[in-house]
Design goal:
By secondary structure, this protein is mainly alpha-helical. The protein has one domain: Formiminotetrahydrofolate cyclodeaminase monomer, up-and-down helical bundle (Four Helix Bundle (Hemerythrin (Met), subunit A), Up-down Bundle), CATH 1.20.120. Helices cover 83% and strands 0% of the residues. Helix 3 packs parallel to helix 5.
């Protein structure tokens, strides 16, 4: 939703900012990617549940071979969501500053939605990495989510 709102703001900013077309194209790509990620996230969870069932009674390396790849997807997909959300927030901030001033509020709302998506993805990763809290992917997600939130705070100031 954030990327779609950003797309609209970019299209309506073409006469205000020379970079609006590029921002709109990137927002469009991010919107399409977000739709894919929603589906991938559902599939990742279901695959993980299936892997847990298949690994029933297994231990050690045998269990890790069955569960590991599915578990990795429950981390990697939310990380992609976090990355996309952070990118949308960054584009929204630029569009808020340079785009059509009548659509600044739309860009701020897009950044807010994007930051919320980044925060949600980071939170999901924290749950899925409860046994590995120092995982570098979680650290990256937390950093990106914090940056997106700071972007929103700066836009509101």
């Amino acid at each position: 939703m954030a990327a779609a709102l950003l797309e609209k703001a970019a299209v309506l900013s073409l006469t205000h900012w020379s970079g609006a077309a590029g921002a709109g194209e990137r927002a469009h790509a991010l919107r399409l990617r977000a739709e894919e990620l929603l589906e991938e996230d559902a599939h990742a969870y279901l695959a993980f549940v299936d892997a847990l069932r298949a690994a029933k009674g297994l231990t050690g390396e045998a269990r890790a071979r069955v569960v590991g790849p599915a578990h990795a997807k429950t981390v990697d997909v939310p990380l992609a969501i976090v990355r996309s959300g952070a990118e949308v927030a960054d584009i929204a901030a630029t569009l808020a500053a340079r785009g059509n001033p009548n659509l600044r509020a739309d860009a701020v709302v897009a950044a807010t939605f994007a930051a919320a998506a980044a925060e949600a993805g980071s939170g999901l990763m924290a749950v899925n990495l409860a046994d590995a809290p120092s995982d570098s992917r979680l650290e990256e997600a937390r950093r990106l989510a914090m940056s997106a939130s700071e972007t929103v705070a700066a836009l509101r100031a």
